[in-house]
Each structure stands twice: as structure tokens, then as C-alpha cells.
Amino acid sequence: MKRLFIDLEICSRCAECKAVCDYFYHPQNSGVTSLREYATFATLCRHCEEAPCVNSCYHNALERASDGHLKRYNMRCTSCKSCTLACPFGVIFSDFIPYLDSHCDYCAGKTGKLPKCITSCPEKAIEIKEAEEDLEKNIYFVGDNLAVHTLRWSKEDLQPKKK
């Protein structure tokens, strides 16, 4: 199955995202922002037990989803960025928290042509391709439509090896 594939190792090189989005309902919307947010929360977020980012949000816009990943409710978020400041690991980037509601609808293969996010990304960090989840190559599936390449954070990596 072809998936939208984002390489966060390449994507993190840009100071500001230049990729544009085909999202039909809001032309000014950048679905790429929500795509990067979703991929980062799933793979890089430390999933703290007492999450400072969740506790700092006085609008209750952040919570842990049933799958354990961090979820941001865009309609509650006022873009105050208190979660960005509270995150002790710097995972919540300030550009993730725009006031406009971003959404990626994974338009992969729906129009017969490549989506604008792929054709406009100067670093070629986004593509549509057949992908296999491969932990040794740092390729992870996030949901049904997204494959992410990144160095994933894991508690197990920090545990001392048992003899």
C-alpha cells in the first residue's frame, strides 16, 4: 500500500516550512504543519507520565489519546504556546501551534497527480511511496496513511542492558 512518507530527519533542516498544501476546504491552511505535528508527537514525544505540556494548557487543548500519543484539540487551542514552553524536551515546536486549524487529509493518490506538499517541498522530505515498517531503518507507521522516518525516542533505549 502506498502511503504518505515524511522524513523528519530531512524535514527538520528548514528554518521555515516552504511546502504548500492542497487541502480543499481552507486554501490558506498548511496541512503540512499538522502532518509534522502528528508525526513528531507519535515518534519523538517522550509521552511523559505527568506531562508538563498537558498540565500547562489551561484550555485543556492537549491530552493523551487512547493510543498513548499526544493529541491537540485545535478548536480549544488559542495558540498561547504555554505547552511549547512547558515541554522539557523541546518536542512541541512553536510553528506546530498556529491559530488556524491545520489538517492533512492524506490526499495521496486521490487526484491522480502528486499533491502540492510533495512538489513544493524544496528538501524532498515528503513523498508517496510503498513503505514497509522497519525499526532498524527507523521507518515507523503512524496511523493508516502515514509512514515516518526519524530516530524514534524510546524509554527502552535509556535502560541499562541486563546481563
3D architecture notes:
The model has no long low-confidence stretch (mean pLDDT about 80). This protein has about 160 residues and is an alpha+beta fold. It has a four-stranded mixed sheet with strand order 4-1-6-5. Strands 2-3 form a two-stranded antiparallel sheet. The chain has helices at about 10, 30-45, 50-55, 80-85, 115-120, 155-160; strands spanning about 1-5, 60-65, 70, 125-130, 140, 145-150. The chain has six helices and six strands. The protein has one domain. The relative contact order is 0.28. It is globular and about 45 Å long. The longest helix is centred in the N-terminal third of the chain and has 13 residues, at about 30-45. About 20% of the residues lie in helices and about 15% in strands.
Entry summary:
The chain has 163 residues and is an alpha+beta fold. 22% of the residues lie in helices and 15% in strands. It has one domain (2-158).
Number of strands: 6
Order of helices and strands: EHHHEEHHEEEH
Strand content: 15-25%
Number of helices: 6
Helix content: 10-25%
Total individual domains: 1
Oligomer: single chain
What value does the average pLDDT take? 80
Termini Cα gap: 41 Å
Which regions have little confidence, pLDDT < 50, spanning 5+ residues? none
Radius of gyration: 16 Å
Helix/strand/pairing category: alpha+beta
Main sheet summary: 4 strands, mixed
Which overall shape is indicated by the principal axes computed on the Cα atoms? Answer: globular
Strand order of the largest sheet: 4-1-6-5
